[in-house]
Design goal:
7-stranded mixed sheet; Rossmann fold; 13 strands; alpha/beta; 401 residues; single chain
C-alpha cells in the first residue's frame, strides 16, 4: 500500500479556537478518513506555528484531533479564543520531528487539503524535497481570483500565489465540485504540466439527532448559515426582513437566524444588524454556535436560505437537505451540483422572488410542499464516497513510480 502523509498544519494553527471553519472540518474529515483506510501506513505532518516542518507522532496527532472535536461539540460553552499560555502544552507536544530517510523503493504521497502555507512556494518545495513525495492537494475554490471584490484586500494576490504553487508542484488535485475544477483548469494549461483533477463532493457530516429548536413565540423561522462576508449576500435578506417589518403585522413576520462569525468588508450589513430598529425583534445573530445547538436550529427551520453570489461547494445546502430541511438558494453552478433537483434556485439579485418564496415557506404554501415532495430523491454525498476517490488517486500516484 502506498504510504500517505497528511498535512494537518491548518488544524494545529487553530489550537486556540473552539469552533471550526469549513476548511477545518474538511481537514479533520481527511484525518479521520485516511486513518481508517491506511492505519499505520498514514503519517501526520505539519508546518508548526513556529515555522518548523516535520512529522508528528500518530498517537499525539490523534489525541489532539480528539481534543479539537470535543471543543467543537461544546462550541459556545468554551472560550472563543484560548490564551497562549493555556495552549503551550499542546504547542510543545505537537512540535514536529525530522522525517525519516525516504525509501527509494516507493515514493509516498503528500496530501494537503488546506491552503495553509501554499503562498510559500519555497516552503512547499522544501517539504516535497525532504519527503521525496508526490503531491496531492485539494482546491476549494478560486473565488478570490474570480471575484476579488468579495475577498479581503490582499486576497487576490495571496490566492494567485497558492494556485501558482499548485500549478508548479501538484501531481494531482482534488476539487470539491466540477465548478472548481473548471476554474482551476486555466492554471494547469498555463503551467504546461499534466495535472489531473478529480471531483469528489465533500461528505455530509451526520447532524446530531436532537429535538428541533422552537422560537419563544412559536413563529416559523429561517436559517442562514456561514461567515458574514460580502459574497454571502446577507444584505438581501436583511433588506427583505426590514421590508417585512414595515409591511406585515408583527405576528406574521417569520424570524431569521443568522449563524456565523463576522467577516470582513461588511460595514453596511453589520450596521443593519447592530442598529436597525426594524430588525431587532425578527433577526437573531449567533456566533460561535456549538454543533449540538446548530443541529437543533437547523432541524427546526422552515428552510435554509443561501443567497450567495459565489461558492466553491455550498456545504450548508447539503447539511440542510440531509435532515429534510428545504433549501432556497442562489442559482449558481456549485449549488446545483450539491442540491440537484431539490432546492428552489433563485437569482441572488431577484429580491421579489426571494420574498415570495420566503413567505410561501413560512405559510407552508405550494412551493414548500413541492420541495418536500422532492426531498426524498436527494442523495447525501458521503465522506466514504469522497475517500474512495482520494484513495484511488493516492494509489495511482504511488504506482506511477
Amino acid at each position: 500500500m502506498t504510504q500517505a502523509i497528511l498535512d494537518i498544519s491548518r488544524l494545529i494553527s487553530r489550537v486556540r479556537y473552539s469552533t471550526p471553519s469549513g476548511v477545518d472540518r474538511v481537514e479533520m474529515a481527511y484525518a479521520r478518513g485516511l486513518e481508517r483506510l491506511y492505519g499505520n501506513s498514514l503519517s501526520f505532518a505539519a508546518v508548526h506555528p513556529t515555522g518548523l516542518y516535520g512529522r508528528i507522532r500518530n498517537e499525539t496527532a490523534l489525541a489532539y484531533l480528539d481534543e479539537l472535536e470535543m471543543r467543537w461539540e461544546k462550541g459556545c460553552d468554551q472560550p472563543k479564543q484560548r490564551s497562549i499560555i493555556s495552549v503551550l502544552p499542546w504547542m510543545a507536544q505537537l512540535m514536529p520531528k525530522r522525517p525519516p530517510a525516504a525509501k527509494a523503493s516507493q515514493r509516498p504521497v503528500y496530501v494537503q487539503v488546506s491552503p495553509h502555507h501554499l503562498t510559500n512556494t519555497r516552503k512547499v518545495r522544501h517539504i516535497l524535497g525532504i519527503e521525496q513525495s508526490r503531491f496531492l492537494c485539494m482546491v476549494h475554490d478560486l473565488i478570490p481570483i474570480e471575484f476579488p471584490e468579495y475577498a479581503r484586500p490582499s486576497g487576490l494576490a495571496l490566492h494567485r500565489l497558492r494556485m501558482q504553487t499548485l500549478a508548479d508542484h501538484a501531481d494531482a488535485v482534488i476539487v470539491n465540485s466540477a465548478t472548481t475544477g473548471r476554474s482551476f483548469q486555466p492554471w494547469i494549461d498555463r503551467s504546461g504540466r499534466d495535472i489531473p483533477w478529480h471531483v469528489a463532493l465533500l461528505g455530509t457530516e451526520p447532524i446530531a439527532p436532537i429535538p428541533k429548536h422552537r422560537t419563544d413565540d412559536d413563529r416559523p423561522y429561517f436559517v442562514c448559515l456561514g461567515t458574514i462576508e460580502p459574497r454571502k449576500n446577507h444584505l438581501l435578506l436583511l433588506n427583505l426582513w426590514r421590508n417585512f417589518a414595515q409591511t406585515l403585522p408583527a405576528a406574521q413576520i417569520p424570524r431569521l437566524i443568522i449563524i456565523g462569525k463576522r467577516g470582513w468588508e461588511n460595514e453596511q450589513v453589520l450596521d443593519m444588524l447592530d442598529r436597525c430598529p426594524g430588525l431587532e425583534k425578527h433577526v437573531e445573530e449567533i456566533s460561535g454556535c456549538s454543533d449540538r445547538k446548530l443541529a437543533g436550529l437547523l432541524r427546526g427551520a422552515d428552510s435554509l436560505l443561501m443567497p450567495s453570489f459565489a461558492e466553491g461547494f455550498g456545504m450548508p445546502v447539503a447539511e440542510a437537505l440531509s435532515v429534510g430541511v428545504p433549501v432556497i438558494c442562489s442559482d449558481i453552478p456549485a449549488h446545483h451540483e450539491v442540491g440537484g433537483i431539490v432546492p428552489d434556485y433563485v437569482d441572488p439579485l431577484d429580491g421579489d422572488r426571494w420574498k415570495s418564496l420566503i413567505l410561501d415557506y413560512a405559510n407552508h404554501g405550494e412551493a414548500c410542499t413541492a420541495q418536500h415532495q422532492r426531498l426524498p430523491h436527494w442523495h447525501a454525498p458521503t465522506w466514504a464516497e469522497h475517500m474512495k476517490i482520494v484513495s484511488q488517486v493516492i494509489a495511482d500516484l504511488g504506482n506511477a513510480g
